[in-house]
Design goal:
This protein is 50% helix and 14% strand. Bound molecules: flavin-adenine dinucleotide.
């Protein structure tokens, strides 16, 4: 749903200009320094990018899902590290509070998340539980008016920068299923919370992950999301369903950028006396990429519209995440191929993108997990 076309076009135009004039020229610097320059972060705050999806009542822009994916298509046409910084505040790092938080929790954290004064992160994965997050072993034991958290979370995006962590922990040790899990907001600086050293990753320099360790970490009982035990896993799954649409839009945007670069290169590079864009084998790679990007974009917009209309789109979101991430991998590979040797050399953005986008098929649920989600939903619907 688009509430006001003119306002949305203005926002998209502003983001497009920001990407072109400020982010793309700084891509190399971000990769070299493994950090987003503070002046760029300040500009992102000014543009309201940290609060795109947060409710207007708490200082966000309150974008609908269709509006949010439309912005994500544009924002992703540069290094994914930029989007990653604002991604957790708009998505997995805030939506637990937005969807299931109490009014007091919303008032306490959402305005600062929307302004980008606070970075949110989402801590589900553990050393022993990734794709199968249900058996997670971090515990939260109630002691009077606090919960005492013990356990380790792994590969947590933006943890080195985060001011708050949405943490899934087991409150019922007798219940080893997802029903024994609750979700908490844990603030940075809480005694007993420590961070590991930042992970050295294949790509996406400028975006950071690390372990988050809880050792007798005393969290106020008021920080239990929604004030209810035993529903934390459901909260996490709702957050991921919405996140999958946003992230699928990011894969579309990144693919558009890689294809733009490949097309430009194919028009400039001459072999056998002609631009390589004139060779039909190159054209096939360009055309397949164009068609697959178009298909992915259409899927994402359709699923976003359905979600805005109140439909349950868990299956469609998984379809988008699966198809768009795999598509992005294929486009990256073809774009390197079109660049020839130059595609393997770090002077060209495609060498970096190729590594950056590999993550897309892994995080927020691997491709295999999306396949399982889709098939299970199909079987459930068929037997209803
Ligand atoms: C850079 C980065 C950022 C991340 N950010 C976050 C974050 O912010 N918060 C967070 O909580 N987590 C985060 N993660 C974790 C990420 O979501 C997990 O890595 C991912 O879900 C996969 O889990 P795993 O690494 O344990 O792999 P595993 O679950 O061990 O999977 C290994 C392989 O087995 C396959 N597999 C597993 N089960 C099945 C099955 N039933 N059928 C078929 N194949 C299967 C998988 O698809 C995969 O190919 C991040 C990871 C990375 C690398």
């Amino acid at each position: 749903m688009i509430r006001d076309r003119e306002t949305l076009d203005l926002l998209i135009d502003t983001v497009r200009r920001f990407v072109r004039e400020r982010l793309i020229p700084n891509e190399h610097r971000v990769a070299d320094e493994d950090a987003i320059p503070e002046e760029i972060v300040a500009e992102m705050r000014e543009l309201g990018l940290f609060g795109l999806s947060l409710p207007e009542a708490y200082g966000g822009l309150g974008l609908t899902m269709e509006e949010e994916v439309s912005v994500a298509f544009e924002l992703a046409r540069t290094s994914p590290a930029f989007r990653s910084l604002i991604g957790t505040n708009n998505g997995i790092g805030s939506q637990g509070i937005v969807i299931d938080g109490t009014d007091a929790q919303k008032e306490r954290w959402l305005p600062r998340l929307a302004r980008g004064e606070l970075i949110g992160s989402f801590a589900l994965t553990e050393p022993g539980s990734g794709s199968d997050a249900g058996p997670l072993s971090t515990t939260a034991r109630r002691e009077g008016d606090v919960y005492v958290l013990d356990g380790t979370k792994r590969y947590i995006t933006n943890a080195p920068e985060a001011g708050i962590f949405t943490v899934m922990a087991r409150t019922d040790p007798a219940d080893k299923s997802a029903g024994g899990i609750s979700a908490f907001v844990v603030e940075r600086g809480t005694p007993g919370l420590t961070l590991g050293t930042p992970d050295r990753k294949m790509g996406q320099r400028g975006a950071h992950t690390c372990d988050v360790v809880f050792e007798r970490c005393r969290v106020p009982a008021d920080n239990l999301i929604g004030g209810r035990e035993g529903v934390g896993f459901k909260t996490a799954m709702k957050v991921l369903d919405k996140g999958r649409l946003h992230i699928a839009a990011v894969f579309v945007g990144a693919s558009e950028r890689m294809l733009d670069d490949a097309l430009r290169y194919a028009l400039e590079r001459k072999q056998f006396g002609r631009p390589i864009a004139e060779f039909q084998l190159i054209q096939a790679m360009l055309a397949d990429s164009r068609a697959e990007i178009y298909a992915s974009r259409s899927m994402v917009v359709d699923a976003a519209r359905r979600r805005d209309a109140g439909e349950d789109v868990a299956m469609e979101a998984a379809c988008c995440k699966l198809f768009a991430s795999e598509m992005c991998g294929r486009v990256a590979d073809r774009a390197v191929q079109i660049h020839g040797g130059a595609g393997y050399i770090a002077d060209y953005a495609i060498e970096r993108f190729f590594r950056d986008v590999r993550l897309f098929r892994i995080y927020e649920g691997t491709s295999q997990i999306q396949q399982l989600v889709i098939a299970r939903a199909m079987i459930r619907r068929a037997s209803e």
